């Protein structure tokens, strides 16, 4: 399981506020609202190769990549296949978080000193009641994240199909 949840210092709070202020998620939020958002999030440190969430887990959290990369991977007969990588600013763990179904993929840190901001389901439920405007921003970011993933996978599939059945097939 993931490394320790990092203790958040004043310097961390300043750096995270600056980081979030440059993310699409917080485009419409004031600095004060970003500070409120940070109160719902937990900073986590991960080592390269560390599994953030595994296949079969029901997603009780979603994650915003702060530093490093998180790969979304699957297991194919003992071999790891990679669907996509999320770098700084990427949101992962969205589908299982919202549909409460077991994960069909694994979330793995692919860079040393990877950091993510974790939003637990309990904190999200609280946020929906206490800060609905911020919660809507989370949902919008989740939709954008899933749309980007769908477009990348669709493009890869179209290229592969074209190779198999189109001009690339011989």
UniProtKB/TrEMBL annotation:
Domain of life: Bacteria
UniProt-listed SUPFAM superfamilies: cAMP-binding domain-like (SSF51206)
Family matches, as SMART domains: cNMP
Signal peptide feature range: none
UniProt cross-references to InterPro entries, sorted A to Z: cNMP-bd_dom, cNMP-bd_dom_sf, RmlC-like_jellyroll
Higher taxonomy: Bacteria, Pseudomonadati, Pseudomonadota, Betaproteobacteria, Nitrosomonadales
Protein name: Cyclic nucleotide-binding protein
Domain Cyclic nucleotide-binding, residue spans: 25-127
């Amino acid at each position: 399981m993931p490394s320790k949840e990092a203790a958040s210092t004043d310097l961390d709070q300043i750096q995270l506020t600056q980081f979030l202020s440059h993310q699409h998620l917080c485009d419409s939020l004031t600095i004060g609202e970003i500070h409120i958002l940070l109160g719902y999030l937990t900073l986590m440190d991960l080592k390269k190769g560390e599994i953030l969430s595994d296949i079969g887990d029901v997603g009780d959290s979603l994650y915003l990549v702060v530093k490093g990369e998180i790969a979304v991977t699957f297991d194919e007969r003992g071999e790891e296949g990679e669907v996509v990588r999320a770098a700084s600013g990427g949101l992962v763990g969205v589908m299982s978080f919202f549909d409460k179904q077991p994960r069909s993929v694994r979330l793995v840190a692919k860079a040393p000193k990877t950091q993510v901001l974790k939003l637990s389901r309990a904190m999200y439920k609280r946020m929906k009641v206490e800060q609905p405007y911020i919660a809507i921003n989370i949902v919008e970011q989740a939709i954008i994240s899933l749309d980007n993933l769908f477009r990348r996978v669709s493009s890869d599939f179209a290229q592969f199909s074209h190779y198999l059945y189109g001009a690339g097939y011989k």
